[in-house]
Amino acid sequence: MFERIIVFIVLGIFVFTPAVSSWWEADFFSWYDVYLPWLLLILAALWLHWRTEHNNKLEQ
Amino acid sequence: MFSLTQLFGIGLAYLMILFGSAYATERGIIPRSISRHPATRVFSLGVFAGAIALHGVIGFAAKYGSSYLLYFIGAGAAFFLAPVLLAPLSRIALSHKLGSLADVFAYRYPAPWVGGVISILMLLGVLPLLALQIHAVSVTTHLLNQELSEDVLAILFCLTISVFAILFGARHLSTRDKHEGLVVAIALESIIKLTALMFIAWFCIYHVFGSAGAMETWLLENKELLKNTEQRLGDGASRSLLLTFFAATVAMPHVYHMLITENDDERALAGARWGFPLYMLLFSLCIPPILWAAINLNAETAAEFYPIAIGLNTGNEAVTIVAFVACLSAASGVLIVTTLALASMTLNHVLLPLYRPSRSVDIYSLLLNSRRILIALIILASFGIYELLGEDQSLMSLGIVAFVAVLQFLPGLLGVFHWRRANRTGLAAGLIAGYLVWFSLLFLPLADNLLFGSPFAPEISERSWHVAATLSLAANSMMFCIFSVLTQPTTEEKLAAAQCMSDSLASSFRGELYASSVTEMENNLAMALGRTASSREVALALSELSYPQDENRPHALSKLRNQMETNLSSMLGQTIAHRIVDRVLPFKANSGSVHALENYLEDYQTQLTGLAAELDDLRRYHRQVLQDLPTAVCSIDTEYTIRTWNLAMQNVTGIEAETVVGFPVTDLKEPWKDLLNTFIYDSSRHKTKIEIVSGEKKLVLNLHKASVANYTRERGDLVIVIEDISESQLIEEQLIHNERLASIGQLVAGIAHEIGNPVTGIACLAQNMQLDSQDPELLELSGQILEQTERISTILQTLVNFAYGSKGDMKRRSVPVELYRCINEAINLLSLSQRETEVPLINQCEKDVYTLGDPQRLSQVFVNLLSNSQDASKQHDDVRITSRFDEKSVIIEIVDRGHGIPSDKLNKVFEPFFTTKDPGKGTGLGLAIVSTIVEEHHGSIRAVPADESGGTRIIIMLPQYDHGQGAPMKVQQS
Fold first, then answer.
1. What is the DSSP letter of B56?
2. Which residues does residue B635 pair with via DSSP β-bridges, in sequence order?
3. What are the tens digits of pLDDT across the range B444-496?
4. Which of A5, A8, A17 best tests the B interface by mutation, with the highest count of B CBs <10 A?
5. Can you tell me the distance from the alpha carbon of B267 to that of B42, in angstroms, rounded to the nearest whole number?
6. Which label site among B8, B300, B752, B951 has the fewest CB atoms less than 10 Å from its CB?
């Protein structure tokens, strides 16, 4: 389920790449704000990895 | 400025650190916990961030602003979307040891030309990428020292890299020998370049601008300036570039090499799903500060070389050196790994199919040397392209030309895992269309610029990337789909598709081989590889599967063949390996059996999905039911080979399933071989109460058989069910015995009743005698008569109680009994008989030891036991009665030196009507009554051999009576 959400978000990024690019250039954001969604995505993938490892250990 | 010696010294020192780390890993100095750590694997993927990530992207950012992020987001997305492409790719490639993308294509679209075409196209597409690495290093070095020309610097760089690539990348032949040294070196290289870039970014923020706040202020002040210098990349171009970078990350040979070829653990990808995007994030975070700092410093170099310009413009030597090392690091990593990957691909798919070495040639040395030569040739070709490039094109433009070329593999690659209908005709059509567009819109303008310098030649611009990427991919995908739909996939392609998609029960399993033994397989393989290589490959496959040399089970040989093909494909490539193995180890036509297929499916359990997985679960459930069935079941096929041997069968026969499944019935050990063989040929379907001796056990079995015929065959497998009725047979016999005992008991009770009356009469007469007579001798005799009649009455009562299963009225008659005295009374009674004089009874028990019970009944116990001991003893042998104690019990032992009791009868002596005496001399009730009385007194009795010389030891254990309310009970004195 969570994996599908990540896939969905990444596909969303593909569709909205130009918008993300414009957002970055907007006046009211800092230059590093564009990295925040990316970082959140990494944290989600990390959590997914941790959960899989945890489940694997439980199964063993 | 730096002198050439300094630059070479720094470069050499850096490369030596890299060499050193690889060498230390190979020698085991760097522990495997580090070299095989998931973080090392993730860092080794940083090889993707080559000169483009370090230089090209800054140039791109200077021109197109935030669009530089597309490179990093595209690469990161490939790992976020690992389940779509990377995960299935990694799974298939690792399980079949597919060492390159050409192997994957050749495996999925089996045709002799597929691997070769993919290899050539890959080489053609990736050469510009290699050339730009050389370009980046030579320009960077030239910026620091102009004594030598860029070309000479490029040659020196290429030579050094060739040596390293050959030394550490082509020392082993097969991709199954992982180069852990290379992985560690590349991981170190990734760490160095990231650290270097972060250091430069930190320098820019805190030294060039002064602080992060100052940089923000500068940005606000110069916003318009920045916007004016940047061009806007269109929406379509953004998307097509994103897709291009995504595809490049999946299909680029250096990423594939580090992710799959040099990796044998599928779990490494799990860590990379977040680790690699994080690496890319950190990398991209450093780009803007460097770009802005260089603009702020009015750097005069091309934007691509701003990292080095920062150091040069600020006069900071440390930053300059760090930038130089970062450039060297990024470029060398891509060059080494890509060259290694391309060399293997070209050797296996282009050279080997064209040149077939003779069997006398040492194939291992030949392949190794060929690979080394190819590495050198590919670096030379890259240098050639570099020479042609000149300085006309930006690094990013060249990179994109290479990336769009690799993008053409995306439709075919998606077809590998997600489209069953995809076939080689579609692949060929797609690749031709895609590469034609790429060639005409990207490569030709590049070549035209280079070769002819025509002023009319179109430049590679944002528009040409976008159009070329979109058009080529669209044409490729369209042709791929149309031709795949219009043409039928071959049987081999269907099997390969099922294998890659792993959701079909159809598999590449094709049944039994013509070869019927390992030796035969080895001989056949020697026809293609020569004797030495053949023996080596067979031995390797046998050890990997843990099979013995004399293995001859059909499904095991089939598995061995697959393993050898997998191993050979890691050395020779999938196409050649498949061709060789198919030629020398062919399958029998239509020989696949359901058993062998099931065996094969066991290995692919985790790969099945959807309906196939559900069906597989159902199959497993039924199989488990059969396995755990409490009845022994085995199945035997039409060739009389054992196919099933469930757990109950293992328990009954004591034979492990692994040792018999796949072997003929005649290989079973006796008595099972004879039993099953006879039953198989027997006309009867059922046989009952068959007695056999297996090991030391006597077994009674019922056998049943049924033929499992199906619509495809007239004669089906035979299922044999074996019922072990040994225990129930024993219980049945016991029941019969008990019934016999019960009827005898009834009889005895009747007799006892009849005897009781005259005994009562005798007792009355004896009492009268006592009353009427004053003669002391007569009085003693009448007293003894009374005592004996009372004993007879007690025995008769016990007999009646025994017959009716009564336990007697113990509570009413329980008094403390001193065992010493009780035994003495028994001895006194027996002294009346003549045997006492011949066999003396010696009471050695301790005095004052009590038990709770009936003194008369206990006396009867000892009378019976001592009498039996006397009967068994020879003249003048004595019978000794001793006692010992434990915490709560007293143990009386009666030891005689008689003929003893046979060991097989020791357990039966306490059963009613069992006697070892001659007929007429014993009723067989004495010891049974003794046992009953002892049990009534909460004790136990058993008989064991006295010692090796003979005799019997009767051991009676009775609860010790604590008569003093706190007085200590007797315990054994040690």
1. I
2. B644, B719
3. 777 655 555 544 444 556 567 788 888 898 999 999 999 999 998 888 888 78
4. A17
5. 11
6. B300
